Amino acid sequence: MTSVLSPSTLRAMGQKEYEKRKHAALEVEALVRELHAANEEDKVEAIVEQLSKELAASAHSNLRKGALHALSGAAIGMRNDVKRVLSRLLPPVLAAFADQDARVRYTACEALYNIAKIARSACVPHINGIFDGLFKLSADTDPQVQNGMQLLDRLMKDVVTESDAFNMDDFMPLLGERIYVSNPFSRQFLVGWISALDSVPDIDMLTYLPVYFDGLFHMLAVTSMEIRQQSYSVLSDLLRDISDAAES
User: Fold this and answer.
1) Is 207 exposed, middle or buried (CB count within 10 Å of its CB: 0-12, 13-18, 19+)?
2) How many contiguous H segments (helices) and E segments (strands) does the chain have?
3) Cα–Cα distance between 190 and 181 in angstroms, integer?
4) Cα gap 65→45, rounded to integer Å
5) Are the C-beta atoms of residues 206 and 184 closer than 8 Å to each other?
6) Are 222 and 228 in contact (CB under 8 A)?
7) pLDDT on residue 248
8) What is d(CA 99, CA 108) in angstroms, rounded to the nearest whole number?
9) What does pLDDT average to over the chain?
C-alpha cells in the first residue's frame, strides 16, 4: 500500500537529530489537519495505521521515537475529533513504555502527555491501560523517564478527577492488585493516586477501603520516611472521612 506520508517526512522521522524528528511530527500534524478538514478520514486512518503498526515497531530506535512524536502530532491535528482514533493511537505509545531504550520510553511519556492534553476526558475509558503503564514506569531507574512519568502522572490525575465518566468499580481492583508493591517509587505513585481520588468530593473512597486499606497501612512500616509520612497523611484523611460519615 502506498504511504500517505511523503518520503521526506518518513526520512526525517528516523533521523538522529531531535529537531528533525520534531519537524517531521509537525508535518504529520499539518497533513492530518488538512485531511481531516477535507473529510478524507480514510487517509487519516492510513497514516495512524502506518505510524502505529509499522513505524512505531521499527527495529531502529530513532524511527520509533519519530513515530511516537508523529502519533502525538496526528492527535493534535485531529483536535476535538481525536476520540475517533484514540484506540489506535494509544497502544503503540503504551507499548513503548516497556522499550529497552530509555530515550524511547521518555519520548512515549512526552507523546502521551501531548495526546492526553488534546483528548482529555476521551482518555478516561482507557485509564486502566494508561495507569498500568504509569505504574510500570514509576519504578524506572532513568531520571529523565522518571521526570516524564511524573509530568504525565499529574496530567492523568487531573483528567480523571475532573471527569464524570470515571468508573471507580473498574479502576480500583487494578490499584488493589498493586498495593503491596515493594518498590518505593511505585509505593509513592500508588499513595499519590489514593490521595488524589480521596480529594474528589463525588468519590467515596471509604466504599473501597477493603481494596487498599491493608496495603496502605503496611506502608507505615517501610524504611522510607517520606512514604510513611504520605501514607500517614492519607490514612488520617480517611479516618476523618470515617468520623464525618459516622456523625452525619
Assistant:
1) exposed
2) 12, 0
3) 9
4) 20
5) no
6) yes
7) 62
8) 9
9) 94
Spell out the residues 6+ positions from residue 69 whose beta carbon is closer than 8 angstroms to its own. Answer: 13, 21, 22, 24, 25, 107, 110, 111
CA dihedral 103, 104, 106, 108 (to 10 degrees): 170
Q: Whole-model pTM above 0.90?
A: yes
Say how far apart CA 149 and CA 162 lie, in whole Å.
Answer: 20
Residue 132 is placed in which grid cell? Answer: 498500568
3-state secondary structure of 155: helix
* Pair 222, 187: CB distance under 8 Å: yes
51 close to 67: Cβ distance less than 8 angstroms: yes
Taking Cα atoms as reference points, which of 40, 36, 48 lies closest to residue 3? 48
The model's pLDDT over 88-127, given as tens digits with 9 standing for 90+, comes to: 999 999 999 999 999 999 999 999 999 999 999 999 999 9
DSSP-assigned letters across all residues of 38-92: TT-HHHHHHHHHHIIIIITT-SSHHHHHHHHHHHHHHHHHHGGGGGGTHHHHHHH
Query: Residues 156-207: pLDDT tens digits?
Result: 999 999 999 999 999 999 999 999 999 999 999 999 999 999 999 899 999 9
Write the CB contacts of 38 (distance below 8 Å, at least 6 apart in sequence). none
User: Nearest to residue 24, comparing CAs of 8, 45, 2?
Assistant: 8
Q: Are 192 and 157 in contact (CB under 8 A)?
A: yes
